[in-house]
Amino acid sequence: MSRQSRRRSEKQQIDWHLPSTSSTGSAYHMGTELFILTYGTLVAQLCEDCEKDEDINKVLDKMGHNIGTRLVEDFLARSNITQCRNSYETAEVIAKVAFKMYLGVTPRVTFWNQAGDDCSLFLEKNPLRGYVEIPEKHSNLLYSNMICGILRGALKMVRLQVDIQLLHDSVNDDKVTEIRMKLMRRHKAVRTVEKEQKHPVGT
Fold first, then answer.
1. Which of 131, 104, 124, 132 has the alpha carbon at shortest distance from 26?
2. pLDDT, tens digit, for every residue of 97-149?
């Protein structure tokens, strides 16, 4: 194995995580700022280690998924959310509570399909963008793709299988970031008191 291939393999196994929120505004602000700065460094390193943008996008999604599966318990404990009755309420909780709690922004939920299981989250201000400038050779890079992975991983833990795609990433221009979210399947709950208390949002 070449040195570059070994370094790429090690980089993809990083145990990366979001900063915890805090009861104090100053600590929360520092956590969000640190996350944004660290995220930019991570993506820059992946650009050096990976040959194709598609590979970087997959790594970011995988890292995000791993974060989401662990982050959901912290979210449920801090938000005091009990349960969501449908896709509309789930999307509202994601936008108005989860995004606000961890990234300090509130996406606009819109463009619902007729079945009520497919919508778009629009971020007019993407905190991950910061002062990032992506070189032209990385035109296919989905800079904010980790967010999609986080949502998919977190929703999986509350028994919701979703298809989440980053349709437009504002890091490439001055437009908004659009995340498309479609509910594919709702897994049946295990009928135990412990399970229902641990994952109430998806019931």
1. 104
2. 999 999 989 999 999 999 999 999 999 888 887 767 777 788 899 999 999 99
What pLDDT, in 10s, does the model give residues 9-65? 444 444 445 544 444 434 444 467 787 788 988 998 999 999 899 999 999 999 999
- In the β-sheet with 108-110, what is the strand arrangement from edge to edge? 108-110, 118-123, 177-186, 160-168
Which single residue is written with the structure tokens 């820059």?
A: 44
Q: Where does residue 159 fall: left (phi above 0), alpha (psi -120 to 50 degrees), or beta otherwise? A: left
Whole-number Å distance between alpha carbons of 196 and 176: 37
Q: From 175, 171, 151, 170, select the one nearest 161 (Cα to Cα).
A: 151
Strands (E), the chain: 108-110, 118-123, 160-168, 177-186
DSSP state of 3: H
The one-letter code for the residue type at 198 is K
Is 64 in contact with 152 (CB distance < 8 Å)? yes
pTM: 0.78
Q: How many CB atoms lie within 10 A of CB 59?
A: 23
CA distance 100 to 104: 4
Q: What 8-state DSSP symbol labels residue 171?
A: G
Considering just the CA atoms, what is the radius of gyration of the chain in Å?
A: 17
Tokens matching residue 98: 């989860």
Residues facing residue 165 across a β-bridge? 180
